[in-house]
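In practice, a research group might receive sequence data for several interacting partners and want a quick structural hypothesis before committing to experiments. The following worked case mirrors that situation: the sequences arrive first, and a predicted assembly follows.
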Amino acid sequence: MIRPATPVALIAHVALRGMAGVAVLLAAVLTGVILGETPLPWATVWAALANNLWGAGLPVDPIDQGIIWSYRVPRTLVAAGCGAGLALAGVVLQALVRNALADPYLLGVSAGASTGAVAVTIMGVGAGAIGISGGAFLGAALAFGLVAALARAAGGGPAHMVLAGIAGSQLFNALTSFFIAKSANAEQARGIMFWLLGNLSGVRWPDVTLALPVAVLGFFACLWHARALDAFSFGSDAASSLGIAVRRVQIVLIGAVTLMTATMVSLVGSIGFVGLVIPHAARFLVGPRHGRLIPAAALAGAVFLIAADVVSRMLIPGQVVPIGVVTALVGAPGFALILVRGRVRG
Amino acid sequence: MRIRAEGLGWSARGRAIVEGITLEVASGETLGLIGPNGSGKSTLLKLFAGIAARARGSVSLDGTTLSGMSRRDIARRIAFVEQQAQTAEALSVRDAVELGRTPWLSPLAPFGAEDAAICQEALARVGMEAMANRSWTTLSGGERQRVHIARALAQRPQVMLLDEPTNHLDIHHQLSLLRLVSELPVTVVIALHDLNQALGCDRLAVMEGGRLAALGPPREVLTPERLARIFRVGARVLTDPADGATQFRFHCLEDQP
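A structural hypothesis for the assembly, expressed as tokens:
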């Protein structure tokens, strides 16, 4: 690996990479805003953005303006935040659990968040005091706690964590179905099932103000611990003997993962495979060191989910396919590839 | 750096694996840890490293107990080479050695030219510099062991704890590793299975059933009676006519010659 020799060169190197990443992200967001069910010309999109960002006062049809600014822009930004957040959650869980198959979906965190969100929405748990995101966070934290405790009781190895996660996912998915069957009317049930498969249709600006800060916060929390995550490569004993405060790092990072997963699930439902496949794709591109892997995975996750959202809107004309269906259609073959590669390497 | 254990103990599922270990290793000394399988050597090393949860007793470095130090401060002083630490990550040899710099770095003090030089030197000391870009997964057991040693050297520790480091190594690398360890100006605690190799240590601690059975210079500790009782082997001492050095020749107790 080529390294910059001086601190100044290092800062320049990091700044250049950072700007390149931001440029790619902006290009992806712009593409996500331009493409959609209703074809809109470039000039209209540009005028609508200019009007809203710096009051350019250009003439735009108010309906087009509404589609772009109130609908496509927040939707694309939330897709970017969710993609980045879920990919980061996958990177962190794979490093801490030391299992290539770990991700928020497989470890039951997403299922727990769904259960929490559903409990709040249709059963009125918390009497309006905690909100959907709060319910999702509590559900996710509870699920992860249970899964971790079960894995520990079973012997505590990386394989046990995944097995416990499968059990946890099944339990919380069953609870979600139970809550829906018990309390929801037919229309609610249909809406919730659609939401559970992942859906960005209902996303508006207030969701952006939740998704983006959480994604950015999670990103910096992970990046701050990049070296600690590297130290987990040889297990938590090795990390400890390399000077990592294992317990503290685990609590902070699992907290960040739970927060990111819960926020994203409460906004757009439970989207599978992003947390699993994107980290591996990013590893393939930039290697296993977390200093590079974390920015790469966050960027790849954001771009991937924007692309998946565009595809979900355009796949069947006049109908929106749940985004979870799109990510699974790409993710399942990706998952198969990981399994096969794992066998070759093992 | 002087390392002292006071009443060290550790239990798993209510059964004591290590019990009542009190000993001190002087600065620069090499202490060999020997004992049959399951006698508690690996656990004792983990206790020395301060990474075993729910440990009893205390470990101190030059009079300061580990429990009063941060993990980072401990890792700047103690390097620990576990037995068979593995990874599924596609790390290169250099990546693995650079992990040794972890306790010296922070997000605000990133890896620099000096760290790179320390890692390069560590790679050279174990003869792995030509393989620096090889992937971990392609290495043999012996090569992995040498990378772990290089990682520990890159930590620039004052105390090194090694758990059967000569496992998986061919005879050439066993001997060069033991020479490397004995030349290091640091305090060393090393678990060994080969009793002839253990003769090269300054002192030996003999473990039996989790307890310290004997402690002292190798030739005083490794008496034929003790070898028969603890290791269940017969032993005769042979002298090399070339330099007068002694070696054990072992045989099964059932086959008395």
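Before designing any experiment, note the following. Residues 99-345 of chain A form a domain with the ABC transporter involved in vitamin B12 uptake, BtuC fold (CATH 1.10.3470.10). Chain A touches chain B through 33 residues (CB under 8 Å).
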